[in-house]
Specification:
Elements lengths: L7 E4 L5 H14 L5 E12 L11 E13 L6 E4 L9 E4 L13 H13 L4 H6 L9 H8 L5 E5 L4 E5 L5 E7 L11 H19 L10 H8 L3 H11 L5 E2 H8 L3 H8 L9 E2 L1 H24 L4 H18 L6 H12 L4 E4 L7 E7 L3 H13 L9 H4 E4 L6 E5 L4
Parallel strand pairs: 1-14
Antiparallel strand pairs: 2-3, 2-14, 4-5, 6-7, 8-12, 8-13, 9-10, 11-12
Helix pairs in contact: 5-6, 5-10, 7-10, 10-11, 12-13
């Protein structure tokens, strides 16, 4: 991973309500003050969904909202974790023997993953660490968290990891809206099934083109090997793959391998028993979405008069492709996108893995107040469970800074 060190900032903890509350809680739990604080921002992916693990560039920004942790290094092997939210229980583990229970959505698992990752290797630390939870993510979240800079989104390219500024258009704001549908990527196989479908599509395309398919894992790798553009790849997908789902038997036959070999050398642990794979639709999504990311950046760079319309259209096409080809949306996300568009957004789409979670919408700055009110009425106020949530679940955000270490400043 490119520069994974975080900057340090002095903070007057006693003058800052959020830090002070955290410090006081830390003292009451552990009996001594924290030695330092760490922030990691949230992120929103503006465009480029489910393509990072296929080797393609994505276009996220860090947001201003963040997670703040207070830390005190200890001499012992014991790791003690506590959360300011009483819903999440205290947890203690032995650093020398970390066990990660993947079947339940336990908050402290993500911390343990980081710890386990440090113990294994420092390079590409965070993206790799996430895999201990069981998901085969592509590294977008960790990269933007470290490489973000206030005021700009980034084009994140992989292998080698690079981040280039993307100046978002003036005159529009990005609004995040939570669908309030939760999806635990670690305890379900939805996410990894998609990664495997892309992997299998890679191998079938590569084999048909006489490439070394055994050593190719990503749709991006096969494009690089063939040295052709996105249009050619989309044509190739239509020629080589069929829209009907593939059975395991058909895949084994195409690749000339046994079911045992498919399971042990290609499929992940939690996709061993999946019987049917949609390769055509997934590959079509990935190649078209990867092309959209580059078009989005080009429009941002060139800033033509109709930039907002062009960018909005790309976001809308991205959502349609996620919904219809990648099938990573859900009813509520589709409804929310619809409501956002009707409320004045120029573009709206699911963001992140999908199957729940949030949407990101591009809204003309002068329409923001009306937009928020309209989405609040149509999505949050119509549902008892969402009623108390609009404040936390619906907000505009600017591109925020990256992960940071805070040290308590001397009192003035
Ligand atoms: C999750 C993963 C990312 C990326 C997105 C989908 O957030 O952690 O690596 O694959 O889904 O774009």
């Amino acid at each position: 991973m490119a520069s994974a060190t975080s900057p340090t900032l002095r903070v007057q903890v006693d003058d800052n309500e959020r830090f002070l509350k955290l410090k006081e809680m830390f003292i009451s739990k552990f009996g001594s003050p924290p030695k330092f604080y760490v922030r990691a921002p949230g992120r929103v992916n503006i465009i480029g969904e489910h393509i990072d693990y296929c080797g393609y560039a994505v276009l996220p920004m860090a947001i201003e909202q963040d997670i703040l942790a207070a830390v005190e290094p200890l001499e012992t092997q014991v790791v003690q974790l506590a959360n300011t939210n009483p819903l999440y229980l205290d947890f203690t583990a032995n650093a020398a023997n970390i066990q990660i229970e993947k079947t339940k959505p336990l908050w402290h698992n993500y911390f343990l993953c980081g710890l386990k990752g440090i113990q294994v290797e420092l390079a590409e630390l965070c993206a790799k660490s996430e895999r201990y939870i069981g998901t085969e993510g592509g590294g977008m979240d960790q990269s933007i968290s470290f490489l973000a800079e206030e005021g700009t989104a980034k084009l994140i390219e992989f292998s080698p990891l690079r981040a280039t500024d993307v100046k978002l258009p003036t005159g529009a704001v990005f609004v995040i809206a939570n669908s309030c549908v939760e999806m635990n990527k670690a305890a379900t196989s939805h996410f990894n099934i998609r990664v495997m479908e892309c992997r299998l599509a890679t191998k079938l395309i590569a084999k048909s083109q006489g490439q070394d398919w055994r050593n190719l894992l990503k749709l991006g790798d096969v494009q690089t090997k063939l040295g052709v553009g996105f249009e050619e790849m989309l044509t190739l997908v239509e020629k080589i793959l069929h829209p009907e789902p593939y059975s395991r038997e058909e895949i084994c036959e195409c690749l000339g391998i046994s079911l045992q070999e498919l399971r042990s050398t290609i499929l992940s642990q939690n996709t061993q028993d999946v019987c049917s794979f949609k390769l055509y639709q997934r590959a079509k999504h990935v190649y078209s979405e990867a092309a959209r990311v580059l078009q989005f950046k080009k429009v941002c760079d060139e800033a033509p008069a109709n930039a907002l319309q062009l960018l909005g259209a790309l976001m809308n096409q991205s959502h349609a492709s996620c919904r219809d080809m990648y099938e990573c949306s859900c009813l509520e996300l589709d409804q929310l996108v619809d409501i956002c568009l009707k409320s004045g957004a120029i573009g709206s789409r699911l963001t992140g893995a999908g199957w729940g979670g949030c949407t990101v919408s591009m809204v003309p700055a002068d329409k923001l107040t009306g937009f928020l009110a309209s989405v609040r009425d149509a999505y949050y106020k119509t549902d008892g469970q969402r009623l108390g949530l609009p404040k936390k679940s619906l907000f505009a955000t600017n591109p925020g800074g990256g992960a940071l270490v805070f040290l308590e400043a001397e009192k003035m």
